Amino acid sequence: MSARVVDARNLLCPLPVIRTQDAVAECRPGDELQVLCTDPGVVHDIPAWCRVHGHVISEIRHEDRDIVISLCVGDTEGET
């Protein structure tokens, strides 16, 4: 199990979701991913994307201007 950080600060939709998707593609099931964002839309967009693709949001928190989303990568085998 490993942990990764994706810096998607100062990017607007859909780029934070795309950066998250790209990082998840390099992860294994059970890996932890932390996404740093500033676009307020990510609090809805990334959890929705995770639900569709089988990943689990473990935390969403605000740190000053940043939004930090932590997720656990699910089983991505068979995805296209």
What do these coordinates show?
With 80 residues, the protein is α+β, with helices and mostly antiparallel strands. The protein has one domain: 2-Layer Sandwich (Translation Initiation Factor IF3), CATH 3.30.110.40. It contains two helices and four strands. It has helices at residues 15-25, 42-53; strands spanning 3-8, 32-37, 56-63, 66-72. The radius of gyration is 11 Å and the shape is globular. The protein starts with a strand and ends in an 8-residue tail after the last strand.
Q: Could you name the key traits of this structure?
A:
single chain, 80 residues, alpha+beta, Translation Initiation Factor IF3, four-stranded mixed beta sheet, 2 helices, 34% strand, globular
Task: Give the helices and strands, then pairings.
Elements: E1 3-8, H1 15-25, E2 32-37, H2 42-53, E3 56-63, E4 66-72
Parallel strand pairs: 1-2
Antiparallel strand pairs: 2-4, 3-4
Number of helices: 2
The number of strands is 4
Give the CATH topology: Translation Initiation Factor IF3
Helix content: 25-40%
Cα(first) to Cα(last) distance is 23 Å
* Unreliable stretches: none
The secondary structure category is alpha+beta
Question: Radius of gyration in whole Å, from Cα?
Answer: 11 Å
* CATH first level: Alpha Beta
Whole-number total of structural domains: 1
What fraction of residues sit in β-strands? 25-35%
Main β-sheet description: 4 strands, mixed
- What CATH architecture would you give? 2-Layer Sandwich
Helix and strand element order: EHEHEE
Strand order, sheet with most strands: 1-2-4-3
Task: Give the overall pLDDT as a whole number.
Answer: 94
Shape: globular
